[in-house]
């Protein structure tokens, strides 16, 4: 397996606060990769740097063999990095279908008729088909999370970063979203999952990295991670 | 097709009115209403579609007016050329000011646009050739046939400008550009993440919006036979251009047209019958009423009542 995403020596500070310090990691093509860590450990900052919402201060981000860390966010999306947002940010004056037409027009450059056909297919596979003409303001929490994933997928990415797509969902809803992510991964999409729900991350990920205070404290397969004393310390306190 | 048919009828009516009505004040007031339709439509491209509230209308409007006046003083160029130059100059200002200010969000952008207005006014106060603070007197040339007065001609020219402005706004609204601008208004981060080049789109919107405001200002020196900085860069233009889309509705191209038609006509009536101060008060009261009672404007209200979105 070759690396699709290679992050090397990444650092990011906000004023005097170091949110990320010397973070290096690799994600292989087709991998299911989990990113965990306590609140404020830098998970979202890390993926904001990868997706381009933030500029990293130091280090490199190589995606598909190309240095992307100085590209604006929209160009990274066009290269194949898509993300969902932790707090859903739907285009609330548009219908669910129209939400998906934004990336299909701006990333994949599809004509409306073709984009609409693709979008409907995507909504069907994600279980939102009956909400296609509903406005985002009329959706439930789980539907909003699905919309986030569907809109990210409409950009036809190679890498999907799912930022806490399951936070605040009920047990069966978590299973539902998890099933969607498994299905996407089977279709060849590399997935980075950021999650607080341990059980979900552990079930989903082939490999997990744990961040604490902006540093990687350990890396390994899920079963090793949960036993790691540093991880237990970070989560439960000393 | 229906749109162009309607536009042709509107234009035909405007021309027919100039031939049949002799009462000059009608055209004087009508011109102002049409001008506010252009300003509001232009404002809505950036303020309504993209959600970037612009208080800089007087800067673009005034630059357009002064471009026309200075060009006329220097070369006596015809009105069409004056309008074209005004649009180019104000479009360039839109692009330049956009580069500097469109990285700001929300209230910070709004404040920066007020600064642009103050800067423009200061420039023209200090430019002797353009008349400085005392202003510039201009002699109107003879009207072109079939018009028997210059005001009537300006009335039709402004009508034509309004049709062009509305056509451009309508095109933007329905194109990929409009979808991108709506995405920016709803969530700028999500728009970027969905592949929308947000800064570029905002710059395009700001340039087009500015150019149309400049075009709306170009005939002003001829309309008054006079130009001076304080009234040309008056903040009331900003408020009128902003209030009309709020009243009519920002999501649809018809919103600013309806809003400006109603608001401007009311203002003209009140200015004549009561006083100029009360008409400013009216704008404030209407704005508050609509923001509270009908945040999507009259178009939104219509859709809500008739169940169409």
Q: At the first level of CATH, what is the class of chain A?
A: Alpha Beta
Tally the helices of chain A: what do you get? Answer: 9
The structural domain count of chain B equals 1
| Tertiary shape of chain A | globular
**Tally of helical runs of chain B:** 15
Helices and strands, with pairings:
The complex is a heterodimer of chains A (238) and B (309).
Chain A: E1 3-14, E2 17-28, E3 32-36, H1 43-51, E4 58-63, E5 66-67, H2 73-79, E6 81-83, H3 96-106, H4 112-126, H5 141-153, E7 159-163, H6 171-186, E8 190-194, H7 198-204, E9 207-212, E10 215-220, H8 222-227, H9 229-236
Parallel strand pairs in A: 3-8, 3-9, 6-7, 7-8
Antiparallel strand pairs in A: 1-2, 1-4, 4-5, 9-10
Helix pairs in contact in A: 3-4, 3-5, 4-5
Chain B: H1 2-20, H2 24-47, H3 57-75, H4 79-101, H5 106-125, E1 136-137, H6 150-174, H7 176-186, H8 188-193, H9 198-217, H10 220-224, E2 226-227, H11 229-232, H12 235-248, H13 254-273, H14 276-293, H15 297-306
Helix pairs in contact in B: 1-6, 2-6, 2-9, 2-12, 2-13, 3-4, 3-5, 3-9, 4-9, 6-7, 7-9, 12-13, 12-14, 12-15, 13-14
Task: Describe the fold and architecture.
The complex is a heterodimer of chains A (238) and B (309). Chain A has 238 residues and is of the alpha/beta class. Chain A has one domain (3-236): P-loop containing nucleotide triphosphate hydrolases (Rossmann fold), CATH 3.40.50. Chain A is built from 9 helices and 10 strands. The longest helix of chain A is centred in the C-terminal third of the chain and has 16 residues, at 171-186. Chain A is globular and about 50 Å long. Chain B is mainly α and 309 residues long. A two-stranded antiparallel sheet of chain B has the order 1-2. The A-B interface holds A 51-53, 72-74, 77-78, 82-83, 85, 89-94, 98, 101-103, 105-107, 135, 151-152, 154-155 and B 176, 179-180, 182-183, 185-187, 189-199, 251, 309.
